[in-house]
Amino acid sequence: MLKKLLLIVLLTSYTFAMPKEQIVEEMTKSIHKVIDILKNKQLPKKTKGEQIIKVMDSSFDYKIMAMLSLGKEWRTISNEQKINFAKAFENRLKESYIDKLDLYNNQEIKIDELEEVKARLILKTTLIGEKENFAIDYKFYENRKNKQWYIYDVSIAKVSIIQTYRNQFTQYLKNKSIDDLINYLNTKNNQA
Question: Which of 18, 33, 39, 66 has the CB geometry, 3.0–4.6 Å to 86, for a possible disulfide?
Fold first, then answer.
């Protein structure tokens, strides 16, 4: 079930970095566009994934997501390792949700509210399922350079995707190196 929810979260994040006052409107439009792509039975799975990724790339800050997923380990690795890990992590996120495109089963997303918490924004939404509903929170931060808002994390039923990855990576790094983790992610990406 968590895999299915993760798929919906990533697929409906078909938006782009935007000013704060446009987040709700743009996310609403984008969610409808993605759902239309998903419902198009004429498009092959790979094409659907490519279309969604093309636009999704500009909505997420993958470097920040990679940094947060490593936690304090990020500060201890070289610049080259940071670049390699960030790319491997970004590719793993993309490959993971393309693999799960078949899990989409006509769910809908309802936008509830945009909440400001300190210097962050949380777009609260609800995934309307056949049997139950799930809260999905898109977490945004403002890039100080361009004054646009980017997604840096998503919580599904109060479980953070970034925290989940951080827990997995922390366990992995207890016995292996960051280079081993990068190689592992790249191997998983190449298998997809």
Answer: 66
